[in-house]
UniProtKB/TrEMBL annotation:
Residues 6-310 form the D-isomer specific 2-hydroxyacid dehydrogenase catalytic domain. Keywords: NAD, Oxidoreductase. Residues 108-282 form the D-isomer specific 2-hydroxyacid dehydrogenase NAD-binding domain. Pfam families: 2-Hacid_dh, 2-Hacid_dh_C. It comes from Candidatus Enterococcus lemimoniae. CDD domains: PGDH_1. Gene3D superfamilies: NAD(P)-binding Rossmann-like Domain. This is Hydroxyacid dehydrogenase. Belongs to the D-isomer specific 2-hydroxyacid dehydrogenase family.
Amino acid sequence: MGQPIIYLYEQLKEEHVETIRQNASDYTIIDAKRESTKLVEDDIEIMLGWDKELGSRLLASETSRLKWVQSISAGVDTYDLNRFAEKNILLSNASGIHSVSISEHVLGVLFAEFRGIRTSIGNQSKKSWTRQNISYKQLSTQKMLIVGTGHIGQQLAAFAQGLGIQTYGINTSGHVTDGFIECYSHKNMSRIINEMDIVVNILPLTDETYQLYNEQMFLAMKRGTVFVNVGRGPSVNTNDLIHALVTEQLSFAALDVFEEEPLPENSPLWTMENVLITPHISGLTPDFKAKLLSIFVQNLKHYLKDGTLAKNAITLNQGY
């Protein structure tokens, strides 16, 4: 058994690698994107980013030293959490890094719809100066239900309240959270959703949130509700969503994530006038790697001290 390895699957700047090296002098640092060094895979103890093929081998190995994985995303539904739990492997995510970016994205797509900007872009491409097909509504005073009151939900609520939007939240227990007029539990969501003008999904994907937005949930909404999904695609039943849009139970949907990605070319969503599609870009964040390094180094110091994580540790049996 050789020196333990920190395996950087996410490529970092050299100064970032040096910061890690200074904090973990007893470890070999392998930058997977820069180096072709042969290594003993079982010596990998820490992984930044997730190499699915290598990770699968380590999870299957009885001699692997893997003890902690730092995800580069907030969602961890692509990980084999049961196997992580069986092998007592720590997992942390990048929650908080994307909060401002996703919040700005949500407000951006809402303004595009409420102020007729989407229609104006189409008219511009046709050199058409017309107001006849421009619809507009006041975004302030609208009631927004933010489904998921974590880092992103709280940031969105703060921004939205600054615009005069009334913000309500959904979380597991209905506990009070800063930035929300009132919060409700998941089990009570269908009871209050018909009071909301805008519904924004920010939930991680778990067994409980899979297909949460189905025909029953869409019918529980107020007719003409605006729906925004920046959470996870499989939280939505796509066929039921399309039906809700066709029947105008939903007046508009801004969709950044989908059950199948890329969205198939034959999907009706592409050509629906009351849909705005973005290609999973809401989380794109300036200086992402520097922010990721900050989380990783905080966790690294704690891990090396006592085997625990300081920030964003995932509760494996809950999935977030």
